[in-house]
Design goal:
Layout lengths: L3 E14 L2 E14 L3 E5 L6 H8 L7 E6 L2 E2 L7 H9 E4 L11 H11 L4 H14 L15 H13 L5 E5 L7 H18 L2 E5 L3 H4 L4 E6 L2 E6 L5
Parallel strand pairs: 3-8, 3-9, 6-7, 7-8
Antiparallel strand pairs: 1-2, 1-4, 4-5, 9-10
The structure holds adenosine-5'-triphosphate and magnesium ion.
Length: about 230
C-alpha cells in the first residue's frame, strides 16, 4: 500500500487554440498524503478544473502519470476506470451538477445506487449525511427549491456519501456570499477529516485555505507548494 492518496508525476495537458497547442498543465508534480487536506489556489484560467478532471479520469493527460493509492489511473481503460472512480473518488463540481428531476435525497443517494449498495445501507447513509449537513428536513425537496448554499451542501453530501478515500472539490461558485461559502467549505473539511478522507480543494478563499494542512498554487501549468504558512 502506498503512503500517498495521490501522486502526480510530470503531468501535461494542452488544448488546441488558434491552430496551435496551448499547454494548460505543464509538467505538474504533486503528492497528497493519506488523510491530508490540501487547498489549491490559482488564478481563473490557470487550469485548476482541468487538473481535477485529469485526476478524476474524466479527461486524459498528453503525458505523465497519475496514481491514486496504488492504482495508476492513467493506465486504466473503461469500464474499469468508471468503476474505480465511483468507489474511490468523490467529486464536488464547480457548478453543483445536481440533477433537477431527482429529490435532494435521491441526488445524494446516487453514488451509492451506482455502486449497487444494499438498499438498507443506501437509506441509512443518505439519512446520516443529511443530518450531518443539517438538511434532513429538505430530503424530499428538489434542487431548484433550495438556496445556493443549500445546493452546495447537497453537492458536498453527494461527493462524500460513499466515503471515498479521495475527495476532489472544485469550489462551487453559486451566488454565495463569502461567509456562507466559507462556512460550508469548512464544514466539508471537517467531514473529510472525520471520515479520514484525503481532500484536494480548489478555493479562492484565504480563510478556507488557512484551514487546510497545506496550500498548493497552480501557476503557468506547474504546481508549487506554499507549505503550511500563507504569505499573505
Ligand atoms: N475543453 C477545452 N478545450 C479548450 N480549452 C480548454 C478546455 N478546457 C479548458 N480549456 C482552457 O484551459 C484553461 C484552463 O481552464 P480551467 O477551466 O482549468 O481553469 P480554472 O483554473 O479552473 O479557472 P476558474 O478559476 O475560472 O474556474 C482555460 O484557458 C480554458 O480556456
Ligand atoms: Mg475552474
Amino acid at each position: 500500500m502506498s503512503n500517498d492518496a495521490l501522486t502526480i508525476i510530470n503531468l501535461s495537458r494542452s488544448y488546441p487554440e488558434g491552430g496551435q497547442a496551448r499547454e494548460v498543465i505543464h509538467g505538474a508534480a504533486f503528492r497528497l498524503g493519506k488523510g491530508e487536506c490540501v487547498a489549491l489556489l490559482g488564478r481563473s484560467g490557470s487550469g485548476k478544473s482541468t487538473l481535477l478532471n485529469l485526476i478524476a479520469g474524466v479527461d486524459r493527460p498528453d503525458s505523465g502519470k497519475i496514481m491514486i493509492d496504488d492504482t495508476e489511473i492513467t493506465a486504466l481503460v473503461e469500464p474499469e476506470l468508471t468503476r474505480f472512480r465511483r468507489r474511490q473518488i468523490g467529486f464536488v463540481y464547480q457548478f453543483f451538477n445536481l440533477i433537477p428531476t431527482l429529490t435532494v435525497a435521491e441526488n445524494i443517494a446516487l453514488p451509492l445506487e451506482l455502486n449497487n449498495d444494499p438498499r438498507g445501507e443506501v437509506i441509512n447513509r443518505t439519512r446520516e449525511i443529511l443530518n450531518a449537513i443539517d438538511l434532513a428536513q429538505r430530503a424530499d425537496s428538489f434542487p431548484d427549491q433550495l438556496s445556493g448554499g443549500e445546493q452546495q451542501r447537497i453537492a458536498i453530501a453527494r461527493a462524500l456519501v460513499h466515503r471515498p478515500p479521495l475527495i476532489l472539490a472544485d469550489e462551487p461558485t453559486g451566488n454565495l456570499d463569502q461567509e456562507t461559502g466559507d462556512q460550508v467549505l469548512k464544514q466539508m473539511l471537517a467531514l473529510a477529516r472525520h471520515g479520514g478522507s484525503s481532500l484536494l480543494l480548489v478555493t479562492h478563499s484565504l480563510a478556507v485555505a488557512r484551514c487546510a494542512d497545506r496550500v498548493l498554487t497552480l501557476h503557468q501549468g506547474q504546481l508549487t507548494d506554499s507549505g503550511t504558512e500563507l504569505a499573505w
